From TrEMBL, chain A:
SUPFAM superfamilies: P-loop containing nucleoside triphosphate hydrolases. Belongs to the ABC transporter superfamily. GO terms for molecular function: ATP binding. It comes from Vogesella fluminis. This is ABC transporter ATP-binding subunit. Keywords: ATP-binding, Cell membrane, Membrane, Nodulation, Nucleotide-binding, Transport. PANTHER family: ABC TRANSPORTER ATP-BINDING PROTEIN, ABC TRANSPORTER ATP-BINDING PROTEIN NATA. Residues 5-233 form the ABC transporter domain.
Automatic annotation (TrEMBL), chain B:
This is Transport permease protein. It is a multi-pass membrane protein. Residues 17-243 form the ABC transmembrane type-2 domain. Belongs to the ABC-2 integral membrane protein family. Pfam families: ABC2_membrane. The chain crosses the membrane at residues 20-41, 53-71, 83-106, 113-130, 136-158, 165-186, 222-244.
Length: 300, 251
């Protein structure tokens, strides 16, 4: 059984910078996978290596079982990449851009699919407009269409919503979700963590060229100590609860709740110490907190 | 194969859409050269027996314009794509190195020939005869544009900014094309400069191209063909290796 993407011990160095340090993971068919990390973590370098835009110093990458170095041609036919930078050829219209892009993949007479892409991405009325005349969000949509002209089973979107307004972002995600539902494997990098949280089933986090987390989204979120309870008490916090103490905020004690079942223990200890709870709030925290914690060196 | 055809079509359309700048402008420049030089030097001795200076000048100007525009086509297209980043759309598909090289090269040749045809058309009235050796003429036109188109690909891939490309163009291509016997027969030069001219491949392009019109030239057309053809083959082979290696294109 092949994987949609298989990355095996991939390393890449630029002068003194170790951009990728023995990265290994797989993405399964039909997954909606997030690749997260701060700027400079190596996400784009990894995507470039997958797409053949850069060459890994060592390790192997396979797309749908095809080696990106020895079976370059076939591997590239299976992969659609939406690059991070907003780039376009100013000489041509939207339709010309997509027709040429189809031709580079060796596809003639792709008009029906190009029309469908234009329609799905809300570009039909811009088909004959020069690329220069489009807004940033519209250009981004054309880039998505360019990545899909050859109907690749694996689609990589490198920060596709950077600089895109809310409405466009929503319609883009609707379209990408449709592609995923139709069986396409999606890999997404984004700075909007709520997008990854809402869309992706599995999440990889990178930092300084290394993979520091790779989990199902739910596992990652539940493994984190990111759930907190805020308590306003009638007296002092009992010593037995000190290990959970995080900080004091607006006269309230904030405690970490590694697990929601710990709440019972907290309340039990308070009862035992005869301290009355005047106010209690549990904060369900999300991916952002997990992300921040991991990036600052802590274990989730 | 279809990817090659697509890239070729795109490259031709790219310069054609800005035809005023890429074809008409160099034709007009050549016409101005022709008018000024033929006015100033019409009393100049015949370059070859029976060939007036005014007629002699035309093939040289045409070849010089072809060479400069073939170079400009591939180099400017590549550097623009690199600087704007849109070259990524050529690097993501499975476009082979021969298709990539061939399409840029052929588009350069097409632009060179279009400019050359334009120059000959507007300057023919200054006394250009019908070609004595049309096949030689065509061979040197195509090969000359090919060499400069290939050099343009090299410069476009090598240069990281417009400034570097301008340096390549102004300090290498311009002197090579101007000091190649466009405006004079190198037989009129002192021995030292005649010797130096023989080291310039553009001289052989122009000399061979002239042979196509007048049936006479400074050196044998076979020698010119060997030099220009040899340059073309060597440059192409080297460039193919460079593109396959991903030099400056894939990091």
């Amino acid at each position: 059984m092949t994987h949609a993407i298989s990355i095996d011990a991939v390393s890449k160095r630029f002068a003194s910078l170790q951009a990728l340090d023995r990265i290994s993971f797989t993405v399964e068919h039909g997954e909606f996978f997030a690749l997260l990390g701060p700027n400079g973590a190596g996400k784009t370098t990894l995507i470039s290596a997958m797409a053949g835009l850069s060459r890994a110093d060592s390790g192997r990458i396979r797309i749908m079982g095809l080696d990106t170095v020895t079976e370059t041609r076939d591997a590239r036919m299976k992969l659609g990449v939406v690059p991070q930078e907003l780039v376009f050829d100013p000489f041509f219209s939207v339709r010309e851009t997509l027709t040429f892009q189809s031709g580079y993949f060796g596809i003639r007479r792709n008009d029906a699919w190009v029309d469908e892409l234009l329609h799905k991405l809300g570009l039909t009325d811009k088909a004959n407009v020069n690329m220069r005349a489009l807004s940033g969000g519209m250009k981004r949509r054309v880039m998505v269409a360019q990545a899909l002209v050859h109907r690749p089973p694996v689609i990589v979107l490198d920060e596709p919503t950077a600089g895109v307004d809310v409405e466009l972002r929503q319609s883009l995600w609707t379209f990408v979700k449709e592609l995923n539902a139709a069986g396409h494997t999606i890999v997404l990098t984004t700075h909007y963590l709520e997008e990854a949280e809402a869309l992706c089933s599995r999440i990889a986090m990178m930092k300084k060229g290394r993979l520091i987390a790779l989990e199902n989204k739910d596992t990652l979120l539940s493994r984190s100590a990111a759930r907190e309870v805020s308590l306003q008490l009638s007296g002092e916090l009992p010593a037995s609860l000190r290990p959970l103490y995080l900080r004091q905020q607006d006269g309230r004690h904030i405690l970490a709740l590694p697990d929601i079942s710990q709440l019972e223990r907290v309340l039990g200890e308070l009862r035992l110490a005869a301290v009355e709870v005047r106010e209690l709030t549990v904060h369900e925290t999300g991916l952002e907190q997990v992300f921040v914690k991991l990036m600052h060196g802590g274990q989730a | 194969m279809y990817s090659f055809v697509t890239l070729l079509k795109k490259e031709i359309l790219r310069f054609w859409k800005v035809g005023f700048q890429t074809v008409m402008a160099p034709v007009l420049t050549a016409l101005l050269y022709q008018m000024i030089f033929s006015h100033v030097l019409s009393q100049h001795v015949e370059a070859y027996p029976g060939v007036s200076y005014t007629a002699f000048l035309i093939p040289g100007l045409a070849m010089m314009s072809m060479a400069q525009n073939a170079f400009a086509n591939s180099s400017s297209s590549l550097i623009q794509s690199k600087i704007t980043g849109s070259i990524v759309f050529l690097l993501l598909p499975p476009l082979s190195a021969p298709a990539f090289f061939g399409a840029y090269l052929l588009a350069s040749i097409v632009r060179g020939l279009a400019v050359g045809a334009g120059v000959l058309l507007v300057t023919a009235g200054f006394g250009l005869p019908l070609p004595a050796q049309p096949l030689w003429l065509l061979a040197f036109a195509v090969l000359g544009c090919g060499v400069l188109g290939a050099l343009g690909i090299m410069a476009g891939i090598w240069a990281d900014k417009f400034d570097q490309l301008a340096a390549f163009q102004n300090f290498l291509i311009m002197p090579l094309t101007f000091l190649s016997g466009v405006f004079y027969s190198i037989n009129s030069l002192p021995p030292l400069w005649r010797g130096v001219s023989h080291l310039n491949p553009v001289f052989y392009m122009i000399d061979g191209f002239r042979y196509g019109f007048f049936g006479q030239a400074d050196v044998s057309p076979w020698l010119s063909l060997a030099v220009v053809g040899g340059c073309f083959v060597a440059l192409s082979a080297w460039l193919m290796r460079l593109i396959v290696s991903g030099y400056k294109l894939r990091h």
